Amino acid sequence: MAEMRLIDVKKEILSDNQARAAENRELLRRNRVFMVNLMASPGAGKTSLILHTIRELQEAFRIGVIEGDIASAVDAEKVAAAGVPAVQLRTGGFCHLDATMISMALQEMELAKLDLVIVENVGNLVCPAEFDLGENKKAMILSIPEGDDKPLKYPLMFSVTDALVINKMDYLGGEADFDMTAFMARIQSLNQTVRTFKVSCKTGEGLESWTHWLRDEIASCRGAVPETIQ
Amino acid sequence: MAEMRLIDVKKEILSDNQARAAENRELLRRNRVFMVNLMASPGAGKTSLILHTIRELQEAFRIGVIEGDIASAVDAEKVAAAGVPAVQLRTGGFCHLDATMISMALQEMELAKLDLVIVENVGNLVCPAEFDLGENKKAMILSIPEGDDKPLKYPLMFSVTDALVINKMDYLGGEADFDMTAFMARIQSLNQTVRTFKVSCKTGEGLESWTHWLRDEIASCRGAVPETIQ
Fold first, then answer.
1. Residue A84 exposed, middle or buried by CB count within 10 Å (0-12, 13-18, 19+)
2. Residue B117's domain is classified under what CATH number?
3. How many contacts does A have with B, using Cβ atoms within 8 A?
């Protein structure tokens, strides 16, 4: 029997990523920019939530968006059309954003002129949860049609997120067979500190609680009520 | 319409990888080590081919193996049991090896005491083809039960490989509906310089042509017939 060594590649990669995330976090802190990392499955409503958030907050805050996408640039085009500067990270098949990619994007943004950066991560409930981007807060969306069992299947993302937006509430009680009590118990067992928001990006229901939370987080990150809304 | 910028992440990653691959290649050259990067789908016979190659060549050459695997270490254990030092790269979900991972593995090996390093890439016909590891030659296996249409579906790997081992030839004419003439025409249209070897790791058929090719490549890499077989 010859010698055998084991290298845990993922551990090494995550450790490198952690170092780069810390650099991003410091860059954001120096510029007093609040960054939120928005994660979800494809179709959960990430772009809709971002467009709504832009509409509600763009008078009070200077916003930039980083759009992660495997192949297209359609989401970044929608965001830019809404009047907010966007950087599109086309991953070319990669299933998540990492801190190095975010560092590339931050270099393209005028951080001194921004209060809030929203990162739309690649649509995927698995890998994005593993990678710290240097964000202030992680947020995720779970939409009603995806089912109440998702915390059982993808526990990591539900465990690490700071905010959980439950979207497409308008489906509840209709076609969707979604047990909200069981779902909330599953969330509670994974994450005792998560803030939850029940919303519908279609009807507008509940969205003010989400934007209110975001306003408070941005203000506390900037150390005071931002000058622009004083 | 605000400004929108596009960053092609994959291009940046591949460019970084290329630089690291060049470092690996230089390290191997200085140590007169020949490295082959073996790619294939899961179950095509990578580990069987490696074990056969070890048996045939370990008297003539000093061999080391780098085993890429998503989760387990079983292949590295088989290789070590065959008397050859092995480094297991556990990728933790990543679908390919890259030059940085290979650099980690090469640092764990006594290159001055080796003639041949065989890399068993992660089982996948897509991503491994994109990443130069710094190897001298790329080799791939296509097994008969996988079907003759694979060059149409995964053209990149068939285009970039230096050697193509067609394994499980014992299935031909039996259950397998494999049109060898059509398959070879597809290969020819993608890659005019590829060396092909029709083998069966089960019956041993054709394997001497593969090991003969490998002997010649190692010898030419070392600049002469290796001392150990003079």
1. buried
2. 3.40.50.300
3. 116
